[in-house]
Protein: Prenyltransferase
Organism: Flavisphingopyxis soli
Amino acid sequence: MRPNTWWHQKLPPVLGVFYATAYRSETALVDLMIPLLALLGSLAVGAAFVSLINDYTDRADDHAAGKANRLDDLSPSVALLLVATTITAGLGFLWQFSDRPWLAATYLAAWVVFMLYSLPPIRLKARGLAGVLADATGAHLLPTLLALQLVWPPAMLIADPLWTGTVLTWSLAYGLRGILSHQLLDLANDRAVALGTFAVRFGELRIRRVVRGLLFPIEFTALIVIAIQVGIAAGLLPLTLYAFFILAKTERFEQHPILVAPAPRSVIVLGEYYELFLPLAVLMAAVVAHYADVWVLAAHGLLFWRCYARLVHDLIRLPRFILG
């Protein structure tokens, strides 16, 4: 499940897009339970497959850099069984989507992109810009497009071009910022084994400038447009609350907000908003519009209870710091 690198970080923003798209179309989420379960299951299977092949193809580099690899504790037969299981399940979801060609193509494309990202001889991971584009596309852009399509009517290729274009722009920009941050975190190890990632080729200083001058402005502008389209209660208000929250954490817990480059006691800007505030705010607005959606809100809380427990813990501590 890799909860610290995938489940808690990459899935909630995609689910938030699903919730927000349904909310804007005035569709009750309980009426979309089958598409929602299909989204959750298909992404979980795909992410498991990606984790397995990425860890497998990284073994030599990880060992050369003295870095632990998650497959070290698995026997080859167990690893092969896990790969076969994920592929079988993925083919099952692909068959389920087969009556909607564009939906099936989007799901298949995510798998193909990550195979190209990890597997030699292509191995885009070691090919600079192509690697970061592949990761952002496979981990963010295509799953977000899948979420949009699962809300749209089956016969419709693209619904609401403004919403679709804004959401996909935001998703790609945030995905690029995420993979660049990850590559900077692994920069020393990747340099030690001469792995040609974008971070190794261009360096931390250039990446900081690109993110600060281009990627983050695009991401934030798209986010504001998304928040405006979702509305005050589900979009602008939670964004404002998050701004106060991150400022308070920075001041009281001595944490440092960062855009991309990892640092001690740092927190990535907007990360908790995408993972916690946005999905929760949209779900609460959906419950007001459709009372039965409370079941979806409860299920989301159970799936990500650890993240929300951490949020509650921080919120409880903040008044004590402020008053003290």
Q: What stands out?
A: The beta strands are 256-258, 266-268. The domain at 3-323 is CATH 1.10.600 (Farnesyl Diphosphate Synthase). The CA atoms of residues 252 and 317 lie 9 Å apart. The radius of gyration is 20 Å.
